[in-house]
Amino acid sequence: MESRAIASYQTPSGQKVKIVKRFFSSFRKRPTKRIAFISGLHGNELEGIYLCHLLILYLKELKKNQPEAFLGEAHIYPAVNPQAIATGTRLWPFFSTDINRQFGGGNGNSLPSQCAKELLNDLKSSADIVVDFHASNLHLKEAPQIRIVDGLHKKLIPLAVQCNVDLVWVHPASPMFESTLAYNLNQSRIPTLVVETGIALRINQNFANRLFQGMLNLLRHTGVIVASNSQSKVDYPVIVHPSQVTLLKSSHAGLFVGHADLKNNITKGEIIGEVVNPSDGEVLQKVTAPENGLLFTIREHPLVYSGAPLARMAHKYIG
């Protein structure tokens, strides 16, 4: 394994900070493919950082014992927003900037913008495929999923189905995506998958282990590595478009008490949870599944207001 700092800077307090990537070179002169894994764009999304740890651990051992297995290159950027990670916050400290809204043109010359530019340029020069790891916010828990902007699905779904996720969700295009890392890489014709899993400031080892197996499968599928050890089974995901996703919202302010966890086979009428008024013992809303399907988002934060998201379901899907 080799390491290189792609950007470095000094904080207002005088601390020196580096954004580092780890990479595993090819045994061949001409690598088959070059895959990059990114985590930590948001400092409170720890699932991807742990997943990068699992990948580095595995690839170091493989490189030591079977260097000829590397027909391509693997580049891992485990913590691209170090200060936000150190404070456990979504935004870059001091600037209160979302670094995943700093890619593309016209974002000024601030430190986060400069680092975003360095990261984007490094990826463009060293990756053929990119996987960008994210977690949810503090309110919602997400099943392992890949989100794809409509129009890119024909190119990205064949890669996404190799990743051992529950769901591939094709989103309509929106101007809000145009300043993200994934959008700009895809526009540069570097296929980029956005993985979302778990919840902010937490690590779900079950989700991480499943995605770890999915990433190894992707590395094998693309010819980056050829490993002699046995491969774990990878499940085919549900593939949905916006019309196949139902968002369930709260009709009242109160406390949401969940009665169901993320699951593949929730049935119509099954209770997902309740919104209660704790001051008078009243059940304000019973939240039930409107159809059979996959419950892939569930609210974890109990405090709700009218219109707050409680759950998401996929129905009438392929998979």
From TrEMBL:
The keyword Protease belongs to this UniProt entry's keyword annotation: no
A Gene Ontology molecular function term of the record: metal ion binding
CDD domains per UniProt: M14_ASTE_ASPA-like (cd06253)
Keyword list, A-Z: Hydrolase, Metal-binding, Zinc
Every Succinylglutamate desuccinylase/Aspartoacylase catalytic domain range: 32-221
Pfam family, one: AstE_AspA_cat
Cofactor(s) annotated in UniProt: Zn(2+)
Signal peptide: none
Record bears the keyword Zinc: yes
Protein name: Succinylglutamate desuccinylase/Aspartoacylase catalytic domain-containing protein
Species of provenance: marine metagenome
